[in-house]
Design a protein that fits this description.
This protein has 337 residues and is of the alpha/beta class. It folds into 2 domains: 222 residues, Rossmann fold; 102 residues, Rossmann fold (3-Layer(aba) Sandwich). 35% of the residues lie in helices and 18% in strands. The protein has 9 helices and 11 strands. It is globular and about 60 Å long. The two termini are 35 Å apart.
Amino acid sequence: MKTVHERQLAQPLGYGIGNTPLQAITFSMQGVAHTIHLKLEGFNPTHSMKDRTAYSLVQKLEDQGKLNENSTIVESTSGNLGVAMARLCQLKGYKFLAVVDPKTTAENLAKLQTFGAQVDIVREPDENNGYLLSRLAHIQKIIVDHPDYVWTNQYDNPANPSIHYSSTGPEIYTQMNQKIDAIFVPTSTGGTLAGIGKFFREVLPSTQIIGVDAFGSVIFDTPSAPRKLTGIGSSRRSTFLHKELYDEYVLVKDEEAFAFCRLLFASTGIAVGGSSGAVLTACARYLSQHRYAQHVVCVCADHGDNYRSSIFNDSWLKEQALELLEAHLGNVEQISL
């Protein structure tokens, strides 16, 4: 196990990225008050932790000498990474093409345009009821037809988990005064979970690392099914995840995640996205079985502003035939600051 003195913690990033706040909230569950610490990644420049990923992916291409003034960077995205990449590319002077799908929110599409990105929308679902594999096939065709297009490949590029190993994990470790009993991490490419998991395995192996995934995702080799949650889940297994990097995983349904998003906002004014609602759901389940866990962290990947037209919109929920009930909150009776 490496000590705090054997490594540089919370390495500073540029462009206003990182050093996001930790906010304590309380879950009231069956007469017991549980303190949970939210790592609010929505305080990054484009309101999601994908700013970190974008920074690392582009830095890797620059270090490898793969970019020039004629290059166009291309990436597949459900929304947040695309926005982060678009902002960074605008700042650095690169052209950017985002390959998205119909589940990308109207808010994120507007942001992509604001940052000058080109946008291709892939509308054909893949074999696993998602769009990821269709987006990736579209990118393969683009980079074959256009040699000046460079794919950052967030799904296989080690720069993805490395940024969470070098920044996200160390920040949490420092902010929690080196005391973390359990940490809940949303999973999509698996980069965040892999990077944070590797860091805590080295500096604090006793920490329980819990991956949080959407019901219907195949990341952990579970059956595929349709899902409304974005920013979490995947139509393919992660290349970054190995069982030694996490202790367990939890699958969360759409209604559970959305119910927690709305209760958190109504109770505290903190707006988070669907993946964060899933993380809160998983945390509540864990606390029902581990009543004495004290130092608990939930990684909240993005801000709720990206979901005003969906999660926080009653009409959208009705259109999707989603009814949010108290039962979806499990044993959580109240959330407070």
